[in-house]
Amino acid sequence: MEEGPLRLVREFVNTLDLEAGTEALAGPDDLGKWLRQHGLPGSEAATAADLGRALELREAIRELLIGGPAAPEAADRLTAAARRARLRPEFTPVGGSRLVAGAGGVDGGLGSLLVVITEAMADGRWHRLKVCHNDACRWAFFDISRAGAGKWCSMATCGNRNKAAAWRARQRS
């Protein structure tokens, strides 16, 4: 299964690198630049309020990917962002449809991410987008394993660390 447009959502979630302690969206100009680099609307004049909504959406997406007790609140935040983006169906003469963001500006750009998420949920790719189980990492990755059971962004780093720590814990007990 190919990642396709879901890559855009993965890259958005990964604008915060917990391990390195870097934030790619440190200010409104950074948000505008990110939207522009990814061909999304809203890059012309992002405000501090736009940045706040973008960061809230990013973390809601991460929480939804993680699941657990925070998932319902995360889903509510995605729903609120979809309302701000004015997502609506658009039909084609040949019987097709897709969601489009009716809002302009940053809300429209963020709405484009929500469209990708909705399409991925419909076609089954969403369950392949995951967050690393390493709490210090939480990097989003697309699981290309045959069974779709990946837990680590990389077996060479996070997976190996976790397995080594588990082995050491077993040896101590």
Account of the 3D structure:
The protein has helices at 6-13, 28-37, 48-66, 71-85, 105-123, 155-172, and strands at residues 16-17, 22-23, 87-91, 97-101, 129-131, 140-142. The chain has 173 residues and is mainly alpha-helical. It has one domain. The protein has a two-stranded antiparallel sheet. Strands 3-4 form a two-stranded antiparallel sheet. The chain is globular and about 60 Å long. The model has no long low-confidence stretch (mean pLDDT 91).
Shape: globular
Q: What's the quaternary structure here?
A: single chain
In terms of structural class, how would the helical and strand content be classed?
A: mainly alpha
Q: Please write the string of helix (H) and strand (E) elements.
A: HEEHHHEEHEEH
Low-confidence stretches: none
Overall structural domain count: 1
Amount of helix: 40-55%
Termini separation: 41 Å
Let me know the average pLDDT. Answer: 91
The fraction of residues assigned to DSSP E strands is: 5-15%
Physical arrangement of strands within the biggest beta sheet: 1-2
Q: With helices defined by DSSP (H or I, 4 residues minimum), what is the helix count?
A: 6
The number of distinct β-strands equals 6
Major sheet details: 2 strands, antiparallel
Radius of gyration (Å): 18 Å
